[in-house]
């Protein structure tokens, strides 16, 4: 896998809350970034990663739930149906797990790493991960789905993550 591993942005970093910009043209630079994102995802044992998580506010995601790597540019859900609830974690919110209700099946439009327009259907875990990563492109995180009880449960952990982000900033 080419590319170097990148540092993951953690809850509290403002970029995780920004809306990511669409990519106008899929250049070699974006192909390089997608490879680096994939490498980072695998090394951190993730099943998906979105560009804002590596500090880039652009619409790029990588997903691999175990049956192949998807590198997607400007992904959009055009149709969804059904419901599922899965306990989700996020590399940007370490140590936190939230049960998130999402569509069970989604239809996507995106571009591949060569800029070709593609359309496909995803179900179950694959659909869940795609929705999670596309949420990242909208500045949305799993903590936004937490119930009142879950919010109380994770409050201290989230405050701890924010403190770590501040501390990291001071370590020039
Ligand atoms: Ni995530």
Please provide a written account of the structure.
This protein is an alpha+beta fold and 172 residues long. It has a single domain, classed as Alpha-Beta Complex (Peptide Deformylase), CATH 3.90.45. The strands form 2 sheets. It has a 5-stranded antiparallel beta sheet with strand order 1-2-3-6-7. A two-stranded antiparallel ribbon has the order 4-5. A hairpin with a 5-residue loop joins strand 6 and strand 7. The longest helix is centred in the C-terminal third of the chain and has 23 residues. The chain starts with 27 loop residues before the first helix and ends with a helix. Bound molecules: nickel (II) ion. The site of nickel (II) ion has 5 residues, from helix 2.
Biggest sheet features: 5 strands, antiparallel
- CATH class equals Alpha Beta
DSSP strand count: 7
Taking all residues together, what is the mean pLDDT?
A: 94
- Tell me the structural class: alpha+beta
Low-pLDDT runs of 5+ residues are none
N-end to C-end Cα span: 30 Å
Strand and helix map with partners:
Blueprint: H1 28-43, E1 48-50, E2 60-63, E3 70-81, E4 84-88, E5 98-102, E6 105-111, E7 117-123, H2 124-137, H3 148-170
Antiparallel strand pairs: 1-2, 2-3, 3-6, 4-5, 6-7
The structure holds nickel (II) ion.
Keywords for this entry:
31% helix; single chain; binds nickel (II) ion; 3 helices; five-stranded antiparallel β-sheet; alpha+beta; 25% strand; 172 residues; Peptide Deformylase
